[in-house]
Amino acid sequence: MSTIGTIARRELAQYFTSPIAYLVAFAILVLTGFLFNADLARRVGQAPPDGTYVLGVFGFFTVFFAPLLTMRLFAEETREGTLELMLTMPVRDSDIVLGKFIGAWAYYTILLALTLVYQIILVAVTGPTPYQATPELDLGPVISSYIGIWLFGGAALALSLVFSAITENQVVAGFLAIAALFVLWLGDFAGQVVPHRVAAQFIRALSLQSHYSTSFLIGVIRFEDVVFFIGLIVVMLFITTRVLESRRWR
Predict the structure, then answer these.
(1) Burial of 42 (0-12, 13-18, 19+ CB in 10 A)
(2) Global pTM?
(3) CB contact at 8 A, 165 and 246
(4) Radius of gyration of the chain (CA)
(5) Neighbours of 16 (CB within 10 A)
(6) Rounded CA gap, 119 and 51, in Å?
(7) Has residue 130 got a pLDDT over 80?
(8) E strand or H helix at 167, and its extent?
(9) Which end of the chain has the lower number of beta carbons within 10 A, N or C?
């Protein structure tokens, strides 16, 4: 565990020295801030506040931003030759993979925590006032949405890590990961238009969106959705570890 922690701290520290990580954080805050302000202005006097709106779009943005956070983790070290040096050290491949994944997930968690400012704003501007009674923010769906988007992000990062491990080109790793995540995101829409019922159910079962938008985002925490995201994380990390092990025999 000390090895995993050391690698995770190293990767997390590198995010704060990487311009790409800061650009991702800036882009997320600008986009979510703009959409939050537009939604809040639209709802004033028309509809109750919705703290899950920002988290819904955050999930879609994760499809594009998660690969940017992971594309360098293995690809850059492979290109520079430092990965081969790491593999010669008395460190298990699984420890390397877990350490890098935890570091990326920790940075993602920090980005997600920054969106709490929107919930604080909603709590501050809602509720009864001396002049009128404004609908209070329903915190139940907000809490479940944060749990869901956190697991969603972990799954997206784990899948993206696979592509970073199989190529030494960061751009290729990022592009392949975005394509794969986008296909999995669209699976819910594809399942609605496929005429064959069994095929449609299978496609929707693999969709990232169907396990988040139709459960966590509406305040429902389903056991099968939690298992789906955790299972996807485990499988993707297992595949990444096998890819790393294959390098020892080259």
Answers:
(1) exposed
(2) 0.86
(3) no
(4) 20
(5) 11
(6) 6
(7) no
(8) none
(9) C
Find tokens 């968690």 and name the residue: 109
How far is residue 21 from each of residues 25, 107, 110, 131, 184, measured CA to CA in Å? Answer: 6, 9, 11, 44, 24
Q: What is the pLDDT of residues 83-127, one digit of tens each?
A: 666 666 677 878 888 989 999 999 999 999 998 888 888 887 775
C-alpha 126: how far from chain center = 29
Closest CA to 96 of 19, 164, 23: 164
With residue 81 as reference, give the H or E element that holds it. none
User: 29-47: per-residue pLDDT in tens?
Assistant: 888 888 888 887 776 667 6
pLDDT at 155 exceeding the cut of 90: yes
Residue 156 structure tokens: 């997206």
Give the model's pLDDT for residue 238. Answer: 93
**The pLDDT of residue 131:** 42
Indicate whether 132 pLDDT > 60: no
Please give the structure tokens belonging to residue 122: 């909603």
Residue type, 35: L
How far apart CA 100 and CA 126 sit, in angstroms, is 41
Say how far apart CA 178 and CA 46 lie, in whole Å: 37
> What gap in Å lies between CA 38 and CA 59, rounded to an integer?
18
Tokens of 216: 């966590």
